[in-house]
Specification:
The chain is α+β, with helices and mostly antiparallel strands and about 750 residues long. Helices cover about 40% and strands about 25% of the residues. Helix 13 packs antiparallel against helix 14, helix 16 runs antiparallel to helix 19 (about 580-590) and helix 21 (about 670-680) runs parallel beside helix 22. The protein binds adenosine-5'-diphosphate and magnesium ion. Magnesium ion (MG) binds near residues 574 and 578. The site of magnesium ion has 5 residues, from helix 16.
Length: about 750
């Protein structure tokens, strides 16, 4: 490069005008020999003459110095490299070459072209490409006809398309059939019109055939000048997880909404913000009404609920039972559990309460208690009955002796009036005692009865007149018979006893004016009813109810009324045996009894007697046993009297003789048989005790009757032993007299037995 100074200068001025930096440096000394204007403005003007100081702000030669690349054998060749100025951060493409400076020196000539903008653009698109490549979303470019041009890795995986196949695949082939119409009608229209579409759809995996839920954004990339469609760009996000979460949430929502438990969400003031269907059903509100309520409105005790709400804020929860109140003001039992709802940051944000209707359970528990009570009561009465029955038996015999002897003594002529009075009083007292024993025996189900098939209405009607007299004029007696009442089989005397006892109690319960109602009704008792009443057996019953509007009973009294000797009446007024008798009678006839009473609200006793379903025995007894012989008649026949208790034997003998009969008395059955054989033909009647040590009265009677078929029999007993009666029920046609008996009673029974055809 030899030239003139002028040439040289012209060169320099051209280089100075060059917009890219140009410089010349001495490769050995690193002295800058020339730098143009552009270099100075790019690097900054500097006094440093060393190229590494000037260009690179270094204190020693640069490790990347290009001297060895352009000198020596490379001399004259251009070496091209890129570098970034560390201070200005600008990028240069450098062209270095060894040249001969005008003074003959070998120098380094470099021209640097600023490529910062291109570099930055490259970097940016590199980054973008990397982002797209590594994106977890599907990114796809397609030609206007749908042919894929680019698909990132996520897309390849999602759609099951390998790199080689991308360009062979049309976008429409990954749209499942059920979305194709939507894509054609909606997506493409939207892109043509607005330039983009966004929405949910599914993609088909071409390899596996599986579907992926995606949220897609598709837009058109148009030619900036003609606005013609160049590409479809499509970015799609896999939303399978989100969909599942949405479905899960939906399931949870539905679970709460359709839960059997009432579920309520409220704020901390108790205002309801959410209720489920079960709640609306349980409380009877509409949704609109419910959302205006406070939790305190749900309970019969507002104050307590407000207290609980406060408690929950402190403790975080509350569990318990309460009495809730419905919209229609009816009450029901609930079990509740309430707790705080906390945010993910553990801040309380609401209150959640769930309620279970436990009315049924509560009722069952109560019913169980009542049943247990009833059972215990029945067992107690059973035990007391056995005791009472035992005592009454012996007591009865002794009363028989007393009464009989009194009557005999009173028959004596020439009694002083004083003696007569005291004998009469003694007899009356003994008779009252006998009445007590009779009641005890009734309670103990040891009363001897002659059941007949009867119409309860007829029996009650026969008693009404007497009952009216019994209860007095101030008390109204109402009679409400059911029509076509089923028949029952019972000793009508027992119905009389029931009616008298219940009416007397009703009378005593009424102060002043009142009303007693007697009612009959056919009642089928079902399983459900019997399940709730201990001892009740399902079936058809005839009910006899006696109600009064008297003072009623408290719970305590009601629990004890059937107990013998339980009375609330003053001494002398009540014996406490009335209802015990009724109880025994009802039990003896396989019936049930129910009592209803409340203080001040009157009392109802309902007796259920089983419907008689067997064949009618002859004609049902209408007008009942009012035909009991009334005449106190004696006779002259000979009677064989068997009784192991000497006192009773003697007394009975005396009584019979007093009535005119001839008596053959004996204390044991063997002797009786001997006597009968001896006096064959003379004896008309065998009168025998039932329970005797050697041979019971029944067997004795059978034995003698086999010898003398015309012999009549009359059994006597304090209570009915099983030999002549089953559970106290006499076989039809058996003559029986209950101890103790009066002369009158004896006369009647003996005549009945003797006069039998
Ligand atoms: P008593 O009548 O001799 O007291 P009961 O066995 O007939 O004995 O009755 C027992 C108790 O039951 C009575 O003392 C009374 O307290 C109560 N009672 C029975 N019937 C009624 C009724 N109709 N109203 C109120 N209390 C009654
Ligand atoms: Mg009474």
């Amino acid at each position: 490069m030899h030239g003139t100074d002028a040439n040289h200068l012209r060169m320099l001025s051209i280089l100075d005008a060059n917009p890219d930096p140009v410089y010349v440096a001495d490769p050995e000394s690193h002295e800058m020999l020339y730098a143009n204007q552009a270099l100075e403005s790019a690097v900054g003007v500097s006094d440093n003459r060393k190229c590494y100081e000037y260009l690179h702000h270094r204190s020693s030669p640069c490790p990347f110095c290009t001297n060895d690349k352009i000198l020596g054998e490379n001399f004259g060749k251009t070496y091209i490299w890129e570098f970034q100025n560390e201070v200005t951060r600008r990028w240069y493409r450098c062209l270095d070459r060894g040249i001969t400076w005008p003074d003959g020196r070998i120098v380094r000539y470099e021209m640097a072209i600023d490529i910062t903008d291109r570099k930055r653009a490259e970097e940016e698109s590199g980054r973008l490409a990397s982002v797209i490549r590594h994106s977890t979303e599907l990114v796809n470019l397609a030609a206007p006809d749908g042919t894929m041009i680019f698909l990132n890795d996520t897309g390849k995986k999602m759609l099951g398309i390998s790199e080689e196949n991308v360009a062979k695949t049309n976008l429409m082939s990954v749209i499942p059939e059920h979305f194709k119409d939507m894509v054609r009608d909606e997506v493409l229209t939207s892109i043509a019109g607005k330039g983009h579409w966004e929405g949910d759809l599914q993609y088909l995996n071409l390899e596996t055939g599986g579907l992926t839920d995606v949220h897609a954004i598709t837009f058109k990339i148009a030619d900036p000048e003609t606005d013609d469609l160049q590409f479809f760009a499509n970015v799609s996000q896999d939303i399978t997880g989100r969909k599942r979460a949405e479905e899960d949430l939906h399931i949870k929502d539905r679970a709460i909404a359709t839960s059997f438990n009432a579920i309520v969400i409220s704020d901390f003031d108790g205002k309801l913000t959410y209720v489920n269907d079960a709640f609306l059903h349980m409380w009877g509100y509409t949704l609109q009404e419910a959302l205006k309520l406070n939790v305190a409105d749900l309970d019969s005790n507002r104050d307590e609920i407000l207290h609980i709400v406060k408690d929950i804020r402190v403790k975080g929860f509350s569990i318990g039972e309460s009495v809730a109140i419905r919209k229609d003001k009816t009450l029901f039992n609930i079990q509740y559990s309430a707790s705080l709802v906390t945010s993910s940051a553990n801040e309380p944000i609401a209150m959640l309460s769930t309620f279970l209707d436990i009315t049924g359970r509560k009722r069952a528990e109560e019913e169980k208690l009542v049943l247990q009570d009833q059972l215990i009561q029945a067992q107690k009465l059973e035990a007391v009955g056995r005791l009472a029955g035992g005592v009454a038996h012996d007591f009865n015999n002794m009363l028989g002796v007393i009464i009989g002897n009194m009557e005999l003594a009173l028959e004596q002529p020439g009694l002083s009036p004083l003696l007569r009075t005291s004998l009469e009083e003694t007899r009356d007292a003994a008779e009252r005692s006998a009445e007590l024993t009779r009641q005890l025996l009734a309670f103990a189900r040891k009363q001897t009865v002659v059941p007949k098939i009867l119409d309860l209405n007829v029996t009650v009607e026969g008693m009404l007149k007497m009952l009216r007299r019994l209860i007095g004029e101030d008390i109204d007696l109402a009679w409400i018979p059911d029509c076509d009442l089923w028949p029952i089989k019972i000793d009508s005397v027992q119905i009389d006893q029931i009616l008298v006892n219940l009416s007397l109690n009703a009378r005593d319960a009424i102060e002043g004016v009142g009303k007693v109602t007697i009612e009959t009704k056919n009642v089928p008792l079902n399983e459900a009813y019997c399940g709730r009443h201990a001892g009740f057996v399902p079936g058809e019953y005839v009910m006899l109810a006696v109600s009064d509007d008297g003072r009623g009973m408290d719970h305590e009294t009601l629990a004890n009324i059937f107990e013998p000797f339980f009375t609330t009446k003053t001494l002398g007024k009540g014996t406490g045996l009335g209802l015990a008798t009724v109880y025994g009678i009802v039990k003896q006839n396989n019936g049930f009894i129910n009592s209803y009473s409340e203080p001040g609200k009157g009392t109802t006793l309902k007796i259920y007697l089983p419907r008689y379903t067997g064949r009618p025995d002859r004609v049902p007894v209408k007008g009942v046993v009012k035909n009991r012989v009334t005449a106190e008649k004696g006779g002259t026949e000979t009677i064989l009297l068997v009784e192991d208790e000497a006192a009773i034997l003697n007394m009975t003998k005396a009584m019979l003789e007093n009535l005119g009969y001839t008596v053959l008395p004996t204390g044991n059955p063997g002797e009786a048989i001997r006597l009968a054989e001896e006096r064959a033909g003379e004896i008309f009647l065998l009168m025998t005790d039932v329970v005797m040590p050697e041979m019971d009265g029944c067997r004795l009677a059978n034995k003698l009757r086999s010898l003398f078929p015309n012999l009549k029999c009359l059994f006597m007993s304090g209570y009915t032993a099983n030999v002549i009666a089953h559970h106290g029920v006499l076989d039809e046609g058996v003559h029986f007299i209950q101890k103790p008996f009066s002369m009158k009673g004896l006369a009647t029974k003996v005549r009945e037995a003797l006069d039998e055809k």
